[in-house]
């Protein structure tokens, strides 16, 4: 190795090699096979180490966990009539207006204890609830707060529950929202659950959009959890309507 006589010279040769600065007076000659092997090993190890650091920093910067904190779920769910059908409704909002979530999709699950015909006990049985899969309403464009509805029909687990039975029922509703972040292309997900105590029978969500003639369309987030009573909804179950 030319130009290297001390440990400091070896260190400078290593730094110049790794950072491709240029050797100057220090270089590895053809007569030093061990130095050549060490130089190749350091170069390969340095490239691997740099790639790992770039990947770690990049992943840390674009992690979509904080994105889900801009999504709001209503504190309560409601059951009321809509288009002559009894429906379960929750509200979902997005407080970030600079970008939207692409390919957004909503899912709702009914979690309860179930006993099979053979007597087997399933403590946490998961049942998918229809929120518009057959009509495409499960695909959302979350530009303003939306009310997610599940129509209580004969296939719904809430089909036979009236207001009194709902208060004493033992189940949990899990609502899952997924969307692709516009700037990074990464998938983000947020979840929220409701128990029977969180469901208000015979109520609706108050409108949040203001469309005054003299002002542009505005969203009043102070009414995000506000409810109003629905006198058209009867306390009987959807099966009895």
| CATH-assigned homologous superfamily of the largest domain | G protein-activated inward rectifier potassium channel 1
Radius of gyration: 30 Å
User: Per CATH, which architecture of the largest domain?
Assistant: Sandwich
Number of helices: 3
Order of helices and strands: HHEEEEEEEHEEEEEEE
- Whole-number count of domains: 2
Q: How much strand?
A: 25-35%
- Our measurement of the CA-to-CA distance between the termini, rounded to an integer number of angstroms, reads 93 Å
Topology-level CATH name of the largest domain: Immunoglobulin-like
Identify the overall geometry: elongated
> How many strands?
14
**Biggest sheet features:** 5 strands, mixed
Helix content: 10-25%
Given the helix and strand composition, which structural class is it?
alpha+beta
Which ranges are low-confidence, i.e. pLDDT below 50, for 5 or more consecutive residues? none
In round numbers, the mean pLDDT is 85
The CATH class of the largest domain, by name, is Mainly Beta
Account of the 3D structure:
Its main location: membrane. It holds the Pfam family IRK. GO terms for molecular function: inward rectifier potassium channel activity. It is found in: Membrane. Belongs to the inward rectifier-type potassium channel (TC 1.A.2.1) family. With 241 residues, this protein is α+β, with helices and mostly antiparallel strands. The protein has helices spanning 7-18, 33-61, 163-168; strands at residues 71-73, 77-82, 85-94, 101-115, 121-129, 139-140, 146-151, 171-181, 187-194, 199-201, 203-205, 209-210, 218-219, 227-229. It folds into two domains: 7-61; 65-240, Immunoglobulin-like (Sandwich), CATH 2.60.40.1400. Strands 1, 2, 3, 7 and 10 form a five-stranded mixed sheet that branches.
């Amino acid at each position: 190795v030319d130009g290297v006589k001390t440990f400091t010279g070896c260190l400078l040769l290593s730094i110049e090699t790794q950072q491709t600065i240029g050797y100057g007076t220090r270089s590895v000659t053809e007569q030093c096979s061990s130095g050549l092997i060490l130089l190749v090993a350091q170069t390969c190890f340095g490239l691997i180490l740099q790639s790992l650091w770039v990947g770690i920093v990049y992943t840390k910067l674009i992690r979509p966990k904080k994105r889900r904190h801009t999504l709001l779920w209503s504190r309560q769910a409601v059951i009321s009539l809509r288009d002559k059908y009894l429906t379960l409704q929750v509200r979902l909002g997005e407080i970030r207006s600079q970008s939207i979530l692409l390919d957004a999709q909503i899912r709702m699950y009914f979690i309860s204890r179930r006993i099979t015909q053979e007597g087997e006990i399933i403590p946490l049985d998961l049942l998918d609830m229809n929120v518009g899969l057959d009509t495409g309403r499960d695909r959302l464009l979350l530009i303003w707060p939306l009310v997610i509805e599940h129509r209580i029909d004969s296939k719904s687990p809430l089909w036979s529950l009236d207001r009194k039975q709902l208060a004493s029922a033992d189940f949990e509703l899990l609502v899952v929202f997924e969307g692709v972040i516009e700037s990074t292309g990464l998938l983000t997900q947020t979840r929220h659950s409701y128990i029977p105590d969180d469901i208000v029978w015979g109520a609706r969500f108050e409108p949040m959009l203001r469309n005054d003639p003299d002002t542009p369309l505005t969203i009043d987030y102070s009414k995000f959890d506000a409810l109003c009573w629905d006198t058209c909804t009867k306390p009987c179950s959807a099966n009895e309507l």
